[in-house]
Amino acid sequence: MEDKKIRISLCMIVRNEENTIARCLDSVKGIPDEIVIIDTGSTDRTKEIVRQYTERIVDFTWIDDFAAARNFAFSKATMDYILWLDADDIFTDSDREQFLKLKGNLDPLMDVVNMPYLLAFDQFGAATFSLRRNRLVKKSKNFRWIGAVHEYLEVYGHVLNSDICVIHKGTGSADFDRNLKIFEKRKARGESFSLRDLYYYANELFDHRLNNRAIEAYQEFLKTGQGWVEDKLSACGKLADCFQNLGDKDKQLEYIFKSFEYANPRAEFCCRLGDYFLRAEHYEQGLFWYKLATQLEKPIDSWGPMLEACWTWLPHIQLCVCYDRLGKHELAYEHNELARKYRPADPQVLHNKKYLEGMLGLSSRE
């Protein structure tokens, strides 16, 4: 019987990844039929470690352009499909098993498979921040990467939304200032920024706590009236953060509400409003927004950043606080119990439980 498994090339670009590359390559065991590593100038043991997994190591002179490096990597693939990862990404054992099942059953008419990308976790190991990325693509489609920084893969055709997760483990060698330096060099050369460039340039300024410059860039992005809706929403949230950092509460509130121009209320922005009014000791208004956050339906297969806490436990624990401040301890207890379903070992939730049981004269409940 003919083997219907697709053949996969894993293509990666690396530089000084001796601390993470083995962990990544161990996690993909059995998935790729070939591993292609593009080295952009490692001076550590990266190549030595990689040779334990593949001889397909190709040097690429770094030109401050991630898309160029990734497109070069894709050009070296020889299998039916191309999988891409960064050196500080991994698959868990369960996700690797799911991937192997996908490899054996994928419809060869499928052009693209996207996967959740889990970027942050809480102290209990639950994902707190995620988005989706196109991870596995058909080589014959010749899809191209676009963008010198924060590059994206332009795809079309038949797309499968997979629930196989890629986990960003971090502790890589990336220079925190690298992306901002690339943007600044391009700006100094007089290059025109695309909408996406402008948005990610603003993000770099924000991450470097350059609030006023970030505000200017985000506002310029939003004034175009164009761009991806998820980027517009994110810009509103970051603008609210910038103005909060600067102590401008009116502008902070303005940009939280501005998010409603681009999409129906999201739990993240309802929680922002709840926090705003809670801090101002306007508890009834805080209740309204936190309640709304608990009633919203989570977008299915959203590609934008997702703060899981805002869609699960956070509004309940904040409702507990608001009701407690209003002297409504039974309702406070009720919402703390709802939060406890999501976070049974959370010290704050357990503290609230003990405190409220004392206020209500209840014996300790499990």
TrEMBL record:
<feature type="domain" description="Glycosyltransferase 2-like">
    <location>
        <begin position="9"/>
        <end position="102"/>
    </location>
</feature>
<dbReference type="GO" id="GO:0016740">
    <property type="term" value="F:transferase activity"/>
</dbReference>
<dbReference type="Pfam" id="PF00535">
    <property type="entry name" value="Glycos_transf_2"/>
</dbReference>
<keyword id="KW-0808">Transferase</keyword>
<dbReference type="InterPro" id="IPR029044">
    <property type="entry name" value="Nucleotide-diphossugar_trans"/>
</dbReference>
<dbReference type="InterPro" id="IPR001173">
    <property type="entry name" value="Glyco_trans_2-like"/>
</dbReference>
<dbReference type="InterPro" id="IPR011990">
    <property type="entry name" value="TPR-like_helical_dom_sf"/>
</dbReference>
<protein>
    <submittedName>
        <fullName>Glycosyltransferase family 2 protein</fullName>
    </submittedName>
</protein>
